[in-house]
Amino acid sequence: MRLRGIRRRVKKICRSVRAARYSEKDIRLIDITQKAAEINKILAETETPFVGFTDPQAGFGEDYFLKLLRELVMDGEADSAIGSLCDHKGNPVPCSGDPKKECVRLDAETRFTFVNLHLCGVVCRTEVIRKAGLRFDEELNYCRDELFAVQFAEQAPVSVRLNHCTYKTSLILDESSDMTPQSQNIDWYFDSAVKLMDRMKRDGKLSEIAQFALLFLLIQRFRSNQGQKIKMVFDTPERCVEYLEQAGAVMRNISDEVLCIRTRATKWERYKKIYLAQLRNPHEPLRFDIRKDREDARLYLRGSDAKSALCGLSDIRLSVVIFHYEADSAGRPGLDIIFQVMHCYPSDSFEVYFVREDDEGEEKYKAKLLTELAGTVTFFDRDAARRDAYHVFVPVTGGRLSVRGEMQFGEYIYPKRISFSDVWQNKLSSNLEGSYWYTDSMLIDCTDGIIRIRPASEEARQTAEKKYLETLEKRLDSMKEGTRERKQLQKALRWRKLYWETFEKYKDRRIWTYNDKAFKAGDNAEYALRYAAGQSDGIEKLFYIEKSVDGERLRKQGYTVMRPGTDEAALAALHAEVIYMTHVPPYRKLGIADGMLRYLKDLMNPKIIRLYHGFPITRSASYAQMANDAAAVAVGSAYEKILYTNEENCFLPEQIIESGMPRYDDLIDDRRKQILFAPTWRPSLCSGIGKDGKPRYNSDYRSSAYFRLYEQVLRDERLLDTAKKNGYKIKFFLHPKMSAQAGDHESDETVQSLSCTVDIDYVTIMRQSDLMVTDYSSVQYDFAYMRKPVVYYHDPALPYWRITNFDYEGIGFGEICRSAEQLVAVLCDYMEHGCVLKPAYEKRIEDFFLHDDHQAAKRLYEATRALTDN
């Protein structure tokens, strides 16, 4: 044995000496951004024993490629080497193998998840490429590098990764981002589907390496179009269906073993993998088998021979989203809990219990599955999966007790940890030592996934607070200087201390908070404030807005204005009796960032009243009552009453405030022969918000279908001639999120492109306009409220990115135009007849709105008083 060890050390020394002889002259570096034909020519001419793939825009560490080459020679058996990849911001990208080791040996043949698909930064043996006749595909616009990487790995599966040898890519690796150019190109989708699969097949079959690569690439495309991130690259719905069919064809060639394997590389929740499995045969529902024992209940696709399960109990979380201490219908005090279950199992295959344990023993309380929309996952604007929500009430007897979670599959019972989502309405935080909630002379905390309750005096509360603050101070000291997380905790810690220091000053004050947009007022909240501030009731009404023109205007008009993020604003928000919520989540607009909420939420107990800036025309889990635990929601139509009280949103009838929208109180028709275009925004065309709080300019906007289609209408000769002949002006008014693009649409004597953040506000321009053209914007309701014509522009070439609730055909307020030509014809007809509202649409408007008396703010105020005075 000693002799064998000596031999190994001698061999290693010899390889080390041999490796030291190599220099960068032995590597031919190839710019991977070149065309495939150019790369192939270089590969054919290369005489060096190694090639390295580089990108002029990427950042490589010192002697990066030389270190890889020498490690490759040292290994002796590996045929490629790679460093540790960082994204364009410098953050490490999750990788296979042990990231703590200096050098990791990866064999993609024994574990296919070890295949490296990032070709940039790789060093390969030239002889492998030559012997296998590998070439870069010259027909693929996308995925040619991944195809080459797979074909190389199939020939030479063993590689090494040097974790201390790093490089930073120039690419945005998060395809869910709206800033990735590739996700805006239709070829990126189709090149990665059947076209790529056919090229990867050998003798009509796919290796597990190729299957995993295809799965990885599919997941990238679906992540890129999840929920609101949909990119709308398909010209027609039929093209989207065609892509999904191709994705299904790819999935039929991917085994269950590859689909179900556990790996960090795909960053894909297991219930989403079920959706991919369903794509294999969309018209046949999936069937499952649950294999149970005392340790686990594992879920498999029925008939599958995969060794890996789709999921096991370790994948399941009982995640609390609403946590109250209150009395039930029988008057018993207790914990009223709504929680989500993240899982893949059929809902009828198990039951969830919360088990109370006290001095008298144990008692189980079965959780009830809710119909409420806890969270629907969509891909390409199509429902794919949903998270289930449950409700349970656990009586509290007054003494010490604990509450734990259990799941029961048939005869087997499994303990489950209880965790808490970081939302304001659940009061506790998971994985935050010392956090607690003090209510009704009780201290409540969650330790090791078990809720614990004990009677406590004010003195005990102070002791708990002291320990909690000490824990937070230690947490702060352990954080890296200058990080966002540290800054947020630092501020939250200061506010928490101030809260208790000023508690006596604030405890009896009644505070109502209002806010519209971050830098903009003039919406429902301002109009609600105007009325409420005029009432002598002893209630403080505070308007939250960043430093802005509107903020200064409100201050000069005598209103109390708070700047979010200041100590004064934070204390008022923490003590608020009422928060009028215009955006989800409610505290973000008040200056309490999401990352700060977990340190402060046990202090909050407001009544949230939803006062959205528009009518809900989309289907969204954010409308559900549980999404922010709203006490009430203000509505202006019968349509909203039905929507909010349906089985997905679950507001009770008594939680509906039939006030109308307060901003409508100022909607007085002042038409001035204007045609208003007011389309809604598109996520793929927004470049985010700058440090000044304003939308960033998108240089790609002018090449978008959105720009092209609206320009086609705005520059139509017939439309312009008709407008001039009848004395009309055309105003093009982009959504606030896209206001930076207003200058891309040229203005002249007839057409004027305006910015709602600079030139004029929505209310004023709507009052002054005779007719509105929109696609799906909620401002259509404001306009219809004034009994003026609305025309919809629903061109199939510009589909909407969200699922809509509103029935445009059945209850819409005007004509629906499917093309630029049709829209021009309808607008010309309206202008030639004085833009008169047609009787059929007038009736629809009358049936839609609950009120027409400009008293919405008054009704809202009175309803809020009734809610808070009791």
Keywords:
single chain, alpha/beta, Spore Coat Polysaccharide Biosynthesis Protein SpsA, Chain A, Immunoglobulin-like, seven-stranded mixed beta sheet, 27 helices, globular
Largest beta-sheet details? 7 strands, mixed
Please give the CATH architecture of the largest domain.
Answer: 3-Layer(aba) Sandwich
Topology-level CATH name of the largest domain: Rossmann fold
The best one-word shape is globular
Tell me the fraction of residues in β-strands, as a range: 15-25%
Describe the structure.
- The protein has 870 residues and is of the alpha/beta class.
- It has five domains: 12-173, Alpha-Beta Complex (Spore Coat Polysaccharide Biosynthesis Protein SpsA, Chain A), CATH 3.90.550.10; 175-284, no CATH class; 316-454, Immunoglobulin-like (Sandwich), CATH 2.60.40; 516-664, 3-Layer(aba) Sandwich (Rossmann fold), CATH 3.40.50; 668-848, CDP-glycerol glycerophosphotransferase, C-terminal domain (Rossmann fold), CATH 3.40.50.12580.
- It has 27 helices and 36 strands.
- Strands 1, 2, 3, 4, 5, 6 and 7 form a seven-stranded mixed β-sheet that branches. Strands 12, 13, 18, 19, 21, 22 and 23 form a seven-stranded antiparallel β-sheet that branches. A seven-stranded parallel β-sheet has the order 26-25-24-27-28-29-30, sandwiched between helices.
- Helix 1 (2-20) runs antiparallel to helix 3, helix 9 crosses helix 11 and helix 12 runs antiparallel to helix 13 (484-501).
- 38% of the residues are buried.
- The model has no long low-confidence stretch (mean pLDDT 89).
